[in-house]
Specification:
The protein is of the alpha/beta class. It is built from 7 helices and 9 strands. The chain has one domain: Spore Coat Polysaccharide Biosynthesis Protein SpsA, Chain A. Strands 5-4-1-6-8-7-9 form a 7-stranded mixed sheet, with helices on both faces. Helix 2 links the parallel strand 4 and strand 5.
């Protein structure tokens, strides 16, 4: 298994690259790397082509996976499938960089569910019965099946939630007090609590 920190969004509402925003004494991307690395798995960064050079400079020694230009996709699904093409035999533990409140204990909980069984293609939390696909484990066999759907034009909707509907997914409900960990920050107003 490898960890994949998704940093490849356009950050248009934030106005600057979210992964490179300061977080305590590091950045949002580095904080996400640290949380996944605490599970003792190697961690790579997923970025779009325009980000590649700045991330390669900011994160020397970390594998940077640029979006694969053979895939006519966008959003997180592009990042996940690009990482799968780079590491087709590896299961991926995906975490978006713009979930800075996420705690390693929550990630470890998901990882423990994964370690208990190999009967599923994906493991994700649910928040009020809605999946949280940007903090999830995606197994190589399931991603290969999604890639086949893409190649045969059967992937009629190109979203993470649609992908989950076509995988044998283990859904784990989160408690009310855990909801804060899954908050996405997309704009400065989110950061300021507006």
């Amino acid at each position: 298994m490898i960890g994949i920190v998704l940093c490849g969004g356009q950050s248009s509402r934030m106005g600057s690259d979210k992964g490179l925003l300061p977080a305590d004494d590091s950045t949002w991307a580095q904080a996400a790397i640290n949380k996944l690395a605490a599970l003792e798995i190697p961690v790579s960064l997923s970025v779009n082509e325009l980000q590649y050079d700045s991330y390669a400079t900011a994160f020397p020694g970390t594998e940077i996976i640029a979006d694969n230009d053979s895939l006519v996709l966008h959003g997180p699904l592009l990042g996940v499938l690009s990482a799968h093409l780079q590491h087709p035999l590896q299961n991926l533990f995906v975490l978006a960089c713009d979930m800075p409140l996420m705690e390693t204990s929550v990630l470890r909980n998901l990882y423990n569910h994964y370690l208990q069984t190999d009967a599923y293609d994906a493991f994700v939390f649910t928040n009020d019965e809605e999946p949280e696909p940007l903090c999830g484990i995606y197994c190589a066999k399931g991603l290969a099946a999604i890639l086949d759907m893409y190649k045969t034009h059967a992937l009629t909707r190109r979203s993470m939630k649609f992908m989950l509907e076509h995988l044998n997914t283990r859904y784990i409900a989160i408690a009310e007090e855990q909801k804060k960990y899954f908050k996405n920050f997309n704009a400065h107003a989110d950061l300021n609590g507006e």
